[in-house]
Each structure stands twice: as C-alpha cells, then as structure tokens.
Write a structure and sequence with these properties.
The chain has 488 residues and is of the alpha/beta class. The protein contains 17 helices and 21 strands. It has four domains: 56 residues, no CATH class; 169 residues, Ribonuclease Inhibitor (Leucine-rich repeat, LRR (right-handed beta-alpha superhelix), Alpha-Beta Horseshoe), CATH 3.80.10.10; 88 residues, Ribonuclease Inhibitor (Leucine-rich repeat, LRR (right-handed beta-alpha superhelix), Alpha-Beta Horseshoe), CATH 3.80.10; 109 residues, Rossmann fold (3-Layer(aba) Sandwich), CATH 3.40.50.
Length: 488
Amino acid sequence: MDAHHHPQQHVFIPSDEPLDHRAVALHFSWFLDKNTLLACLRVSRSWFAALEPCLWHSFTLLRDLPSPTLPQQPFQGVQRQQERTTLHPRRYPTPGSIQRNARHIARLRYFGELPFLKALVPHLNQLRYLEVTRYTEEVKQLLQQNATTLHTLILKGDPLIPGDTILVDRIWHHLLDCSALRVVELNSAIVSDYEGTKFGKVCHKLTSLSLIDSKFLERPKSDDEFLHLHTLVLERSYLPTEDQPPLFELCPVLENFTWRSRSGKLSIFKFLIFLNAGRGEALSGLDLSGSQIVDSDLASIIRLLPGLTRLRACNSLFGPEATRVVVEVRQHQIQELVLLECPGFGPMEAQIVLTACSRLQVFSAPVVNAMHMAELAVLTNLRVLRLGEVTDMEEGPFLLDLKVHSGLGLLSTLGRLEVLDCEKLKPVMEFSDLQWVVRTWRSLKTLVGSVHPNFEQRDLSNEFLASQLPGLETYLTQAERSLALAAR
C-alpha cells in the first residue's frame, strides 16, 4: 500500500454537523508529505487510528514473482544490486483490518489471479481508479458497485503471458452505467465487430482514451463520439479505416496526442490537413516517437501548433530544420523536449535549443554532454535532465568528466532538478563532487544510472547520495526503475 495524497480531491466542505477531532486530523493529513505522515502515525494509538485511512487510499494486489536471475559477477556492487532486486513473498493485511478500512480505498491495482481479492471486493464502494489484468467476475462486481464514483479504468492483458489479449465485449454494458468515468486505457484488448456502437457511447463521455496494442474490428458509427476527448493515445493498435477520417480528426478539443503505429508510419498528409484547418489550436502535447517522420514534416507540424509546449519525437528524423522552427517560433513556450535516438539532432542543434528555450523543464537528448554546461546553467526551471551519448558498446560507454572544477559547478542554478538520468554514460566523479550534489540539488528525487565508473564503487556512491538526500531513489537502469515501480 502506498500513501497517495491528492489535496484537490479532499476539499473541506462546511456543514452544520460538528466534526470530531479524527475528521479534522484526517482532512489535514492529505496535505502532509510521506515522511511527515509516517512520523504522525507513530505518535500514539489515537493518532494512528485517526490517520490510518491515508494508508489505504491506494491498494495494490500483485502475484508473487520469482526472484530475477542475474548473472553472477565478481564485483561487490553487482552482488548488492542483485540482493536489492530480490522479490519476497507478499504480505497483506488481516481480514479484520480489510473490513475496517476497505471503504477508504480509492485506487486499486490488481494483477493476477488472487483469492485475496474475493474477500476485498464486497467492501469496495468508493473506487475512483481501477487497474486490472483480465476481466473477471470480481472486476464486473467492482464496476457495478462503483458506478457512481469510478473515474479511471485501465484494463491490460497479463504481462506474464506472451501475446495475451482480452476480449472486452462484455465490459461495455457496465461502463455505460459508470456515470463518473472519464479515463479509459485498453492494453492488449480486442473489440469485436458488433460492439462498436457501445464502445462509441462510452467514448462520448471520456476526456482521455488510450488504445495500446489493441485491435478494434469496428469503429463507432457516429463521428460525434469523441467530442470531449482531450487526450488520445494510439500505440500499435489496429483501427479499421474504411475510408473514414483518422480518429484525431474527430477530436475538436484535443490537447494531447500520442501516435505509435506498428508500421511506424503516420498519415502525415492527413495530419497536416487537420492542422492547416486550424483544428489543432488546442494541442499542447505531442508525442510522435517512432513515427519515422522526416525533418521537414516535423518542422511544418511544429509551425502549425501555436499552443505546443511538450514535444516528444524519439527515434525520428528531427534535425536542423525542425530545430530552427522550434527556436524561431516556439522558443518562449516549449517546456518539454525529448529527442532520444534522433541522428539529425547533433551537438550544434542541442546548443541552439538550450540557448534559446529558457523555459525548458524536461530535456532529454543523447548529445547532451560537458560542452553544454554553460547553456544548461541558464535553465533554472529544469526538472528532468538526461545526460549521455548512446555509443557503440564495443567502444565502451561515453565518459563524462562530471566534476565541479570541470563544469559541474556551473549547474548550481538547477535548484529545482528532480530527475537525473545518466544511464548511457559513466560520469567521472570524486567524493567531493558527490558532496556538492548533496548540498546543491536538494530537490533531487530520482537518479538513474551510476555516478561512478568503477563497478566496486558505484553502489557505494549511489547509497551515499540516497542517505544524504531524503527521499532520493537510485537505479542503475531504466529497466530496474520500471521493475521497482511495478513491484509497488
């Protein structure tokens, strides 16, 4: 269980009825950070009883997984990392504790076939978020019990079964009764050719729709079913065309659009027509990673999006022309730019972008290295930074002299930095440089990669940073980070 605090969802409502001290304490607890909340829980039994519902806001049920088998290495650091990623059998609360606190659960993540869920389901009637693998009788019961509160539904195939898909025809009838439903994500799902109408009626009330590795044999009959969609994610999903317009043309208020196709190709001609007609004015977030769009088309798209603030174009041909348009037209509004595996985006283009786009909060590109320290220092709003260069593994990883006297000291202005990803390089740092990081980047929350090139020292260095910065999480790879997030 995790303590998730969402102050905007716990607004104090005046009432004629008096509130006891527990209700007041619970209201204020939603505004506490995790460490402060845990300290309050240890004050006394009465404090624990009053604040315990906060611990039940989010509940995750996971099947027990076998410990991952990693190759044995002679280095102490790798052995420590292997011990750190070992998964132990999961322990869940007692039935009595569940019956007493299940009514406080607002977020449920359920993966695998677990008898434990059957004892939990009858007590869940305030769910706002539900994430499951498989559509079972328990899930059906949950949809019926939470028809007036459920806001988000994520339905996935079983990740432990390769190629697993879900036939979701039975679900639409129950989703039509969910009056508060606004966000749906279908992963590895199949919609048959006689359920398109019901699917369209569900979409009519959604603000966010994500279709990932899914197959739809029939599209909704009406073009008015997507009028309220603000976010549309299409990743490797099959949608019948039948000479019908693409889905993004049916979303007049679209703000965030993600496209990743199996063939790697997007209908650029139709997309540009859509933008030229002025129907993309509300679009502020665009992710075209893996779409194999050429530099000139990317430049045209960026020019036609007046509200663009977030752009992801990994594994594309983003190059000098698109860089020029970003700098000339969008330099004062672009806040997120992620350009990994873009061969046309070199050190010169990176320097131009870093110099002109002063409002960047997220920047990730393979060519960011020591020569860009002065430009990075100006980005005082930067929160996520990925350093390093992807090189041929036979030549060895990229080495970066990340020392205070070699340029690191210039980055003392990045006081808001929360995520540093240096997985693709091996920084050369001394203990004094680590001390500088501890003193300067107090807001750092996640470190991906090693801050020391030596296998025997990298875990010691990461553990030192984690011990000095409260709440800092360290991972050697993005894969390890994803595993840790899934285990939660």
